[in-house]
Amino acid sequence: MEMFVSLLVQIISGAIGGNLAGMTNQSMGTNALNSVVGGVGGLVLGQLLSWLLGAPAGDALNVAALGSNIIGGGVGGLVLTFVVGVIKNKMAAK
Predict the structure, then answer these.
(1) Which of 41, 49, 55, 78 qualifies as a cystine partner to 72, CB 3.0-4.6 A?
(2) pTM of the entire structure?
(3) Which of 6, 16, 30 lies closest to 80 in space, CA to CA?
């Protein structure tokens, strides 16, 4: 159950990060698309960060683990949405 809480926090943080990236010129168009791409990026970077930091499996509600999930998810969502937006805009300019 605590693993699902961790995944949910990463996806929600990623969606928020994706919408923050969508406020720039690198938007994907709609907020829903920014949220989906951000959620995927948040999930990927959040899982990678927890794997690199070696977070214990049953510690999803620990303050440090929760902070790492929020930061990793938000940054992952922001970065992936920004990168995909740049690629989309470069392809549309041609």
Answers:
(1) 49
(2) 0.84
(3) 16
Q: What local confidence, expressed as pLDDT, does residue 54 receive?
A: 72
Q: Is the pLDDT of residue 59 over 70?
A: no
pLDDT (average), residues 19-27: 84
Over 70: is that where the pLDDT of 55 sits? no
For the chain, the structural domain boundaries read 31-89
Task: Mention every residue, 6+ apart, whose C-beta is less than 8 A from residue 44.
Answer: 76, 80
- 20 contacts 76 by C-beta, under 8 angstroms: no
Q: Which two tokens stand for residue 90?
A: 């470069």
Distance CA 38, CA 31 (A): 10
Cα–Cα distance between 45 and 71 in angstroms, integer? 9
Contact between 9 and 73 under an 8 Å Cβ cutoff? The reply is yes
Cβ neighbours around 94 below 10 Å, total: 4
